[in-house]
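Wed. Picked up where I left off yesterday with Cytochrome bc1 complex Rieske iron-sulfur subunit. The coffee machine is broken again, so keeping this brief.
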Amino acid sequence: MSETQLFEGAGDEEMRRPLMEKVVAISFIVSVLATIGLGVTYWVGGQPQVEGGFLFLALGGIGVGIVSWGKYLVPQGPYVQERHEMKSAPEDIDAMHASLSRGLGQVGRRKFLLRLLGGAVGVFGLINLFPFLRSLGPVPGKSLFVTNWKHGSELVTSDGRVVLASDLEVGGVMTVFPKGFEGEPTNAIDQVILVRAADYNLVTRPGRETWGPQGYLAYSKVCTHAGCPVGLYQELTQQLLCPCHQSLFDVLTGATNVFGPAPRPLPQLPLYIDSSGVLRSQSGFNEPIGPGFWERGA
Ligand code: FES
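Structure written out below (tokens, as returned):
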């Protein structure tokens, strides 16, 4: 390529530059508007086809803008200039001044385009954070720490029948709830598996001397692995089995996990028997129930 052709190429680029700057700017603006449209559509209930169209325009706008910028606004070169006599002719000096002023304009426009690009990417990220956060569901609040068990709660079956100390033989098992919350749609966290493992007071761990009157032991039914209901009791081995991934919990030692992926024991509910022979809880659980939320350790 001759020197003349090279300069002609550079001249063409100069002529094309204003047009391409407009193309780049419009692409970014389209992207911003489409992203806002996407956010609004999602906010008012969502419509997959419309959201898809907006997403296409938002990402397409950024893509077209960046590609056009790289292809038409970044100097492509190579530009070769013969070195002549070192002293500049007056017309060369004028040309240089003109070129410098033109460059200042380009720098200003480049800043503008950079801001538009930042705006397009920023708005896109911000608005798409919405669906992501909303998809995480409602904030759990204290529900993972607090159940409806409290001091004096009567143990009742799912149909509301109060559980008496005489109800189970040794080896018997049933699912119980705190009175007043049986049948509630949100009572899954309150489910307790009640086992009668002996006919005398049982101590599962130091500090739990009064928790197992007449051999009654109560444990949260929500598996500490992934939250499945621990519903199977093997009387022979005195173990509770979670059917989901076969975790085994030893009833006599505070439901310590002896097999399977559960990371910690099932929390134990302290019980007492009142003067009428009704089973009640001494308090709520002394630790959060359910999956090892997360990595609390035993
Ligand atoms: S949920 Fe119980 S072992 Fe996985």
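Quick read: DSSP finds three helices and eleven strands in the chain.
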